[in-house]
Amino acid sequence: MSEGSTLLTSEREVLTWSAFGVGIRELAGMVVDSSFEPDIVLGIARGGLIPAGAIAYAIDCKNLFTVNVEFYTGVNERLDVPIMLPPVLNAGDLDEARVLIVDDVADTGRTLELVHDFCAGHVAEARTAVIYAKPHSVISCDYAWRHTERWINFPWSSEPPLRRRIGLTDS
Questions:
Q1: What is the model's pTM?
Q2: Model pLDDT for residues 82-121, shown as the tens digit of each residue
Q3: Closest Cα to residue 36, out of 102, 120, 106, 133?
């Protein structure tokens, strides 16, 4: 397997840390090559936090915000609709900014859609970037490193937690 490749199984795509490093640089390169210069990188917690931070470094954007959204509760298990969790970002902090919304994957796309809609009416421009996009996503991402139909194992979430927090869902 080459440095930037991912492992494919019949049911899953496994992203290694090494492939993540290559992929995030290529994804950030897509943003730079498009001449889009975001004022803010907005990472969707939790899956989008590591990609957002890495992209922010790669494109030299020091304003990194986060928004907490819960949708997935397990493998292919999700709530009826994604919900923002507190503390909710003050949308006024985004006024007239160019924002790059980052997540790990656009699976259904509903999480990205929720955050994109949240930004609407405040930002000068919002674009979306993901490591993986799936064909059935309701939002077409501006930037995607790979396209897949498989479930993805990300290196930051493939291992179970060291301790389960009582009363919280898997997300």
A1: 0.86
A2: 888 888 899 899 999 999 999 999 999 999 999 999 999 9
A3: 102
Distance, in Å, from the CA atom of 150 to the CA atom of 12, rounded to the nearest integer, reads 5
Q: What domains can be seen in the chain, in order of their start residue? A: 9-153 (3.40.50.2020)
Place of tokens 């919002």: 126
Task: For 133-149, give one letter per residue: b (16+ CB within 10 A) or e.
Answer: bbeebebebbbbbbebe
At 39 the pLDDT is 98
CA distances from 35 to 26, 97, 124, 156 (A): 15, 15, 15, 30
Query: How much of the chain is in helix, strand and coil states, percent to nearest 5?
Result: 25, 35, 45
Write a three-state SS string for 104-118: EEECCCHHHHHHHHH
Helix axes 49-58, 17-33, angle to 10 degrees: 50
**Residue 60: count of CB within 10 angstroms of its CB:** 9
Residue 53: which of 119, 14, 100, 115 has the closest Cα? Answer: 100
